[in-house]
Amino acid sequence: MAGSDHCKKSCSHGKAALPCNDSGGGTDGRMIVNRAIGEASIREDLEALTVSKRLVRSVSQKLLKKNHRRNVEEEGNQTRISSRCLGLYGRGGGCKVGADTCEEFGDGICRRKSSADEEGKGHQAICGTEDTRIDCFSYGVTERFWRRNGGKERGLEEPLSDGGLNVLLPDELLEMCLVRLPLSTLMTARLVCKKWRSLTTTCRFLQLRREGLYRSPWIFLFGVVKDSYCSGHIHALDASLDQWHRIDAHILKGRFLFSVASIGDDVFVVGGCSSLTNFGKVDKTSFKTHRGVIVFSPLTRSFRKVSPMKHERSAPILGVFSIGSYCSIFRSQSNRADGHFSRSRVGGVSNVYEDPHRLSLRCHLRGSSSEDDALSEPKRKPCGFVKQESSWSNLDEDRRFILIAVGGLGSWDEPLDSGEVYDPVSDKWMDIPRLPGDFGIVCSGVVCNGMFYVCSETDKLAAYDLERGIWVGIRTTHSPPRLHDYFPKLISCNDRLFMLSVSWCEQDCQMGSRDKAVRKLWELNLSLLTWKEVSRHPDAPMDWNAAFVSDENCIFGIEMFKIFGQVLDFLTVCDVSGSELRWTRISRKHVAHELDASSCLTKSIAVLHL
Amino acid sequence: MASPKVIVLRTCDGETFEVDESVVYVSETIKNMIEDGCGDGVIPLPNVSSKIFPKVIEYCKKHVSDFESLKKTSNGDEKEKDKDDDSSKKGKEAVPDVEEDAEEKARVEELKEWETTYMDIDQQVLFDLLQAANYLNIKGLLLMAAEKAASMIRGKTPEQIRETFNIKNDFTPEEYEEVRRENAWAFE
Question: What whole-number distance in Å separates Cα of residue B184 and Cα of residue B178?
């Protein structure tokens, strides 16, 4: 390590009177001694004269300033060390002379020796620029040694200096400071200067930010209606700074009753309706149901269309699977006979019917439907697939997402029992078997532990096993009792399954009144299949279409309703990782007051970490 | 245990400092130098000035107990940090944990307060501290300083940030517009 080299050299010189700090490259003993003597005398002189220190400083500052402008020198008396000194101060590392005399300026500046310096940022040639001249005055020398070609310098007290954070700190350290900024501040930081912009937009930086867990949850509110118009606005709440932002999404204008799901850093907007006669209004007298899927990327503020679903659906029930790339989950399309082989009986685990022609995901992606491949490679292998879209580069190589859409209402407003899955990488939708016959109308669903759990309006529970491609019925000991108007909502956090349902308050209720309705959070014990009440929502359930979404350990909920002539919204969050599950309010700032009451019906939310 | 050893360090401007070995051990860089055998002579710190060094040492002194306890636990002694070890050795789970929890909480509170005072510094010192902590490889200090720098950026407009940190706006008006458009929705 360089440190020990320094140490040994200084030990060997051992001159108490003269400082003997060696930089990494110095081996010329003669030069060191000469320098040392020179420095000692200069220091003595300068120490005595505080006034002259300032003078010296201001002169050097002016020179600094000039040199700071990249490769622009306005005055002829630039002084630089000639290249024969390079050896001593090489590798952009600590410069002995500069270091020694920095005290005179009261600046205490020290060049940081780091790998960042050495990485060829173009400043290795402090001494190597075209106009190098030897300057006998150490103070002048000092400043030059510190100079990096990028013009990075110490910001000195003089306000005219271009210095400051930019030139003072090496990129590494600057990155370290910028990476922990919340997204809004980061976006502001990009406007400060070119350097900050370039530093904060590299893949590496974004990766660091993601891995360092510097991101915070953002809640996106979709489907709002304003002045009876589906404006396509998206309201985003930055939970960390408690700031609402409004995003214009023209592509969503007129669309309502779509469903949203967050995948990676994007939000998928799936299906929905739009009025044919009265475009833009929430009007179902004559309407069209969409198959289309739009992907919203908040980070780039962009929208793009991906492959539409196979069936038109409004308000489909969505779920997102997160799988390893080696999982074979897709079935061969040729065997997609809708559901005749996989109806499962509700009330128990059904037989597993395996598709003998099951293809691995890899084959499917390659677009080949070579069944021979599948048969000869029954084992799963990790596959390296080509990412089709750059937006997926933020996902880990071996982590993939599959979107599932089940149920919803069809073109004639009929409840659907079909389902399909979507692979973002191959941009393909694929049918899956229908819901079990006696299941009923699906009203909520969520992915948990590789299974897409769904519950019906008649309180039945089933799950779609993605890997085996079948529905299994789930019989629990008893479903939580509930009010009929409020459909239960399934939520999953970290492989735990929860349900939110509204029921009458029981005897242990504070008010002692049975007439009070309360929203309860239940957790399903996945092995025993029993429901247990784990929390109660503090707010009265005024919104029968309250939206809940989970994000890692937290369940976010939004309730919106009109009361006393005003539309109000309430956002709450519950952290399920603690021993006590309590709901807390997120934002005191209301966004709904400008919205129509019908937003309550059409709203949906998604949560992203940005 | 060896008697407390004093290490002599010399900053880039020639000043020497004598510091306890346990204190300087907080710096990975110095620790490595000592382990490489330089602890007997004067350790040079060419990238640290005598102005910022005392500030760094202040941090090290405050955090030396962390390192002391870590060192000792690796030697098998019981230390407050190694709670699990304690519990299992004592065989009781409830009471010692609660006591240690309360102790721990108070310690954390006190540390937080100390940090707030310690970090009440101006921008110049902050930058020096960042660089010194980076060179001396003191992770905790580096993170603290980075967080402070980040807090100085938060909530400011670009112009305010430029003012605070003395940065020149090198965007052309067109470029600025472009960047603004890319990041605009954060400002609505």
Answer: 9
